[in-house]
Design brief:
Elements lengths: L9 E4 L2 E5 L4 E4 L8 H22 L21
Antiparallel strand pairs: 1-2, 2-3
Length: 79
């Protein structure tokens, strides 16, 4: 996932869902960082994602705050 590059990328780490948006990264769910190899793998994946987000944000001249675009409901095409 390239942070803030599109409105389509979604990735998961454990039970966390990370959704890419052009104006934000949305994170929902939960993640247990257990004291084992699986926990280490989850922690590293989460760190890598946040390092990438911080790198992208650090390269930009950021405003103090943005107004988030509203989420719009769309008609279910399968109904």
């Amino acid at each position: 996932m390239e942070p803030f590059q599109n409105e389509a990328d979604v990735t998961s780490i454990g039970q966390l869902t990370i959704e890419n948006r052009t104006d934000r990264i949305s994170i929902s769910g939960s993640l247990d960082i257990t004291r084992d190899k699986a926990g280490l793998q989850n922690a590293r994946a989460l760190k890598q994602l946040f390092d990438e987000i911080v790198t992208v944000l650090g390269r930009e001249d950021l405003p103090d705050a943005i107004k988030l675009s509203e989420t719009k409901a769309v008609k279910n095409p399968f109904r």
